[in-house]
Amino acid sequence: MLVAITGLRLQRSAITLLDEPTNNLDREARARLSGLITSWPGTLVVVSHDLSLLEFMENTAELHAGELTVFGGPYSAWRSHLDKQQAAAVQAAQAAKQAVKVEKRQRQEAEAKLAKRARTGQSSYDNKKGSKILMNQRASDAQVSAGKLRSGSDDKVNAAQASLDAASSRIREDERIGVNLPDPDVPRGRRIAELRGTNRAFVVEGPERVAIVGANGAGKTTLLERVVCGEPLADSEKVSDVVESGTAGGRLLTGRAGYLRQRLDGLDEAATTLENVQSAAPDVPAGEIRNQLARFLLRGDSVYRPVHTLSGGERFRVSLARLLFADPPPQVLILDEPTNNLDIQSVDQLVEALNAYRGAVILVSHDDDFLARLDLDLVLNLDRDGSLTELPS
């Protein structure tokens, strides 16, 4: 990726387009990329969900609901502007909603007055209080007055409703994951996994959250594979203090683990969303699974679509739901670069799901903004020699 981007920079084209350039780049490579971008010749257009990278942009263009809007400033400034805009829209909608209530109440009061006048006029007519011609004229005038009053009231109600509709249309309905996950029953002190470097070993206990960082090629994915594929230890066994020279690895201390690979290759492409999740929880009723999938924003007929027809974000949510809704639920989630190829909203949804999960989490990521949003207990750096070093979390 760095070689390709360097080649583009040397071409010195008038306009250069970069599509998700930081995917699969480690911290050092991302820092080098930032240096290239700050001195880029010509116009640079970047598509990215990397919030740090977006801070180097002079303008932010958003594609939303088929419309493109451009804001002068980096992502954080645009986000602040949007939040203020949305807060104002919500306030305007609340005021408009109150105005509709007021106009409807006034229309009801006006109708009550008209009904009272009609009863009084009918009573006068029945009791012959006045000449027939005069009473008919009064009745005609009352009808004209009532028509004008009703028309004016309806106009005011319609105008208030139109203002409410306009204000409501400016409010974005950002979909959020809201899941009630089963309790994986991970008490504090329960040994979950061993992470072993060439220098020392770390034990994940209880619902701890551990992030593993390091340069590409250091063996982070290999470490996870060795943890997942290694033989689980019995609860009575002690974690070995022996460290194998030159090799980083580890073992699970529980048989209930969920592993999310980078490429989401654990799904049955021909099967539906519902079938994929049911395969992990065969004893859970389909209706209950559908209710849970709806909270994962997988609703209606989408649960019957084959996985190969789903978007990247949908496929990710299916993979995550399959892990989280497994029966029995996993006591540890192991995630390898989970934010790669996810858009900003999907990353937000992942953060919400992980923060709702009550088990242990072990994840590999280069995305510092993503890691900062998780309540991490331990951050480990894996060096190329296989050593694990604890970093400030």
From TrEMBL:
This is ATPase subunit of ABC transporter with duplicated ATPase domains. SUPFAM superfamilies: P-loop containing nucleoside triphosphate hydrolases. The lineage of its organism: Bacteria, Bacillati, Actinomycetota, Actinomycetes, Micrococcales. Keywords: ATP-binding, Nucleotide-binding, Repeat. It comes from Paenarthrobacter histidinolovorans. Residues 108-136 are annotated as: Disordered. Pfam families: ABC_tran. Transmembrane segments: none annotated. Residues 206-386 form the AAA+ ATPase domain. InterPro entries: AAA+_ATPase (IPR003593), ABC_transporter-like_ATP-bd (IPR003439), ABCF (IPR050611), P-loop_NTPase (IPR027417).
